[in-house]
Design brief:
By secondary structure, the protein is of the alpha+beta class. About 20% of the residues lie in helices and about 45% in strands. It has a four-stranded antiparallel beta sheet with strand order 11-12-7-13, covered by helices on one side. The longest helix has 22 residues. The model has no long low-confidence stretch (mean pLDDT about 95).
Length: about 190
């Protein structure tokens, strides 16, 4: 069963401009510019009067219909990114050996994980900033405009501290995401 037309639109917030040229979406705001390519999805993307972005999908089956909401969500995340930005907070969990995390250039170095001598290194993607929390012990904050880059950095840090060949119910050590979302608007 094919749906004749599936259409969704999203409002463009104040101070944000959206350009769409052959399914390449460019969103510009006060924090910078983000670009994303949607050429792998067969749908119509239009800016309506500078106020709305509309996504149209003609004669689609059920799986293709799901991609309409996905594209709208991606564009929404880009708009939030260029206005407020995204922040992910990660906490260190350890039972005995304290995990030591430091920044060298754009590489996060994790030392003394489970008392191992090996230094784990994770390269931060472009546009992601690393801050060691001053008020909370054993916490780091990763922030940036692109939610994909920030969440990728967090995922790579978390996966670098996977425990192997041990009982995971007992060895809960690692670096885990404790909080995530858009940076709160200053009041």
């Amino acid at each position: 069963m094919k749906t004749v037309l599936a259409s969704r639109s999203i409002e463009i917030p104040e101070g944000v401009t959206v350009e769409i040229k052959s399914r390449v979406v460019k969103v510009t705001g006060p924090r910078g510019t983000l670009t994303r390519d949607f050429k792998h999805m067969d749908m119509d993307l239009k800016v309506i009067g500078g106020k709305y972005v509309r996504v149209d999908l003609w004669f689609a089956n059920r799986k293709q219909l799901a991609s309409v909401r996905t594209v709208i969500s991606h564009i929404d995340n880009m708009m939030v990114g260029v206005t407020r930005g995204f922040i992910y907070k990660m906490r260190f969990v350890y039972s005995h050996f304290p995990i030591n995390v430091s920044l060298a250039g754009n590489i996060v170095e994790i030392r003394n994980f489970l008392g191992e001598r090996r230094v784990r290194r994770v390269t931060l993607p472009a546009g992601v900033t690393y801050v060691r929390s001053a008020d909370v012990k054993d916490q780091i904050e990763l922030s940036g405009n692109d939610i994909a880059a920030v969440s990728l950095a967090c995922a790579q840090i978390q996966q670098s501290t996977n425990v192997r060949n041990k009982d995971l119910r007992k060895f809960l050590d690692g670096i885990y995401v404790s909080e995530k979302g858009a940076i709160p608007a200053a009041e």
